[in-house]
Amino acid sequence: MGASRAPISNLQSPNLLIAISFLLAAFLRFYQLDGTSLWNDEGNSWAMLARAYGEIAAAAAADIHPPGYYWLLKTWSLLFGDSAWAMRSLSATLGVLLVVLVLALGRQVARNRSGWGYFPVLAALLAALNPFQIYYSQEARMYMLLAVEAAGVFWALLWVMEIGDLRAGDWRLEIEGMGDLPTPAISNLRSPNLIIPYSLFIFFGAAGLWTHYSFPIVLAAAGLAYGVWGLGGVLRPAHPLAAERRPWQSLLTFAAANLLLLLLFVPWLPTAIDRVLNWPKGGETISLVEGVALTLRTLLFGPLRDVPAPLWPWLAVAGLLPLLGLMALRRNRAALAALGFWLLLPIAMMAALGLFTDAFLKFLLIASPAWCLLAAAAPWIIGTDSGQRRATTVLAVAVAAFGVASALAVLPSYYQDGSARDNYRGVAQYVAAVGDPAGDLVVLDAPGQQEVWRYYDPGVPALALPDQRPPDRAATEAALVAAAAGKRMIYALFWATDEADPEQVVEQWLDRNAFKAFESWQGNLRFAAYAVGDDLTAQPLTPIVWDNGMVLDSVSLPAGASVLHGGDVALVQLGWSAPQPLDRRYKISVQLLDGRGQVVAQHDSEPAGGSRPTDTWQADEPIVDNHAVPIAFGTPPGDYQLVAVVYDADTGARVQQPGGDVLPLGAVSVARADVPAPVAVIPMQHRVDAALGPVILAGYDLYKQGYAHAPETPLAPGDLLHVTFYWLAPYPLPADWPADETFTLRLGDQRLTAPLAGGAYPTGEWAPGELVRGDFDVLYAGSDRRPVLAVSDDEMPLDVIPVR
After folding, report:
1. What is the pTM of this model?
2. 548: buried, middle or exposed (CB in 10 Å: 19+, 13-18, 0-12)?
3. What are the sequence ranges of the domains in the chain?
């Protein structure tokens, strides 16, 4: 053997860069750790903590997950508590540990490879910045633990294969200019020690089986990698100085290790087999191109919704880097096999089982470390000779920049998005602020939401329906009738109803028997509020015939004078019919207009809450159509007019009736609330909390006029932009508080100057700390996409509006 050359010096990567990667990983995983609500599955994790360890196992036996993660979380909670932050801190800690393991794997791959010293650090940096890993590091579920266990298995596997290469005499290292074969820290050439790596392999493998039923795919990938590596070793001639080769003995040792880890799972194996055979069917078949795009998007950005556009350049790079990494590792047989199968086999499983849906894409997390390692290896495809190292370094910096850019593209909006996960917390805060425990009801459709709702319990009684699968329509409706009797408001939370309530028994009953005030998506949770109106009085009316053939036969309003406050609803019941069936679908908009004719509130839907589209009406069939117009918090006190509008559901074109396209229904008075609602529970598109002149702008909404339900709808030149400002009076009011402050809004060459609340409610009448809305329309002429707001001498650019 030649002269000693300290060949492992290339592993001494700058400690500062390693420390930065670890600190960055910790910061990104613990920052805003409880910034989003617990969602349904995290509520199930929280519920497990109240159980003893044996009870957890019994509950898990009826679930689709083994008890391993719940046992670990239970132990963690005994030390740190069961708050959302405490539960998620386990996943955040595991997320940092995963970055450490990626560094260890990178060092294992780079060992004895000249010029690869920065590869482990680059891999760790990509893992630290990876939004997919960050997202699941902030969720109290088992998926980050699963990724750590997968990384642990392959770390141990590479260790085992390194020892195998040493025993077989992998003298290709000399070809790469490494000189003498080094002595690894864990063994020596003649007597390598397999006890430690195989112990780790068994530990991580058995732990993975106790964590999730999908983990066998990781063990299968490890087995295939070992088999391919072993076959290559059998076919390659041995060096005469190498230890005696016993390929079949090595294979038997590996098989014995797998058998031992399986034996450690035997107590749960019958339950696992039963659960897998009864696993809920899901997923869908998609094209190869769609599958590849969805896989790359998930590996790069995870489930985050706000991704950069256009997306394809990002996906192209995300797909190219691991391919280059595989080519760069072509002479490292062990790493090539391990990382290749680790990345590709979980993707193949997803494709084979049709699991490319939101509910199953998180299974790709086990392949995320492999993607980071292969992407980090891409720069070394250029080579490590003295003439190639500069280009390799440049490409390595470019890959690092891509990782940074990917994080910057999505993480800021993720950290600010309260609905990045299903926003049960925000819904509960709203119900707590406006709900009446004695007169309101919460309906949970489906019942699986009970645990997370109990965590945020706002004190309003809750009813979980349907209580069986498939739902019993008669029993479900009878339960709703009994629970809704005497109630003022019903708040409904719809989640995973395709499985729990596929016939929409609960929602259809609510649409027929209550007045839907509003609904909004809070992540994948749909939140709706219904008013229960049993004291409506029919108004004198001669049937009104619209030009499309619809006939308004009756209008019913609450008895007596309507005096409402923010958070209340204005109820209207319309009775429709048509002498002939209609061939188009129409929507009805019930609107609240101020003295300027400005829409300040509205409720749009197809008849009967959407359950009776007009193209399903029979001739002369009576249709009961309930509407509840929500009076938003901050609506200026005063007198308003209720009107009805009918328009084409596809084109938006209004339908005429003898009095025009707007039908007056009645008057409504709005009074100032005695106790203002917390600003935090008021829905706003953009929260800013910025001081402008003497007032505070709490937030604002921007959308195409009439498209509050779809604020992302693009505007074309000539369209009206609707703007809602949420003004907050200071507390206390200053001595120089203005009598009627105004604002100016500029959009291109358009300019609007008006009182903050539109003129009917001047600032001199505002109460200290009061929130007041102002609704306005401004023409979009096509010259500029960013409105600019000015109050007194202060200016603030608003968000860019979507345009065609």
Report:
1. 0.84
2. middle
3. 15-416, 426-531, 536-670, 684-797
